[in-house]
Prior knowledge:
There is one protein chain. This protein is mainly α. It folds into two domains: about 1-40, no CATH class; about 45-119, AhpD-like (Up-down Bundle), CATH 1.20.1290.10. Helix content is about 80%, strand content about 0%. It is globular and about 40 Å long.
Amino acid sequence: MQVRRSVLGDKHVDRASANITDFDKDFQRFITEAAWGSVWSRDGLSKRDRSLITIALMAALGHHDELAMHIRATVNTGATVEEVKEVLLQVGLYAGVPAANTAIKIAKEAYASLANNPV
């Protein structure tokens, strides 16, 4: 949970935790243990690198809500706007222009929301 909070921020984690129900509590525990406890906490890549990889994957796979969340998380991971722009250009080349076009729109909205409502 410490790694999750360091990447996504306390506000996001507190909001997500408040919405857990009996239906999804096992899934939420799985995500916390597998993603944040087993993968994001490893030493092999920095949080910045994991952040950029995750952004590319979410954009390529069309997971728009997760993409927006990870764009906003860059304020905590150290990934810069310029680096995200480069990653999305790479997405356009390897995952397709429509995927990158949508991702760029989402990134612009996410960055605008950060400017209006800092984490």
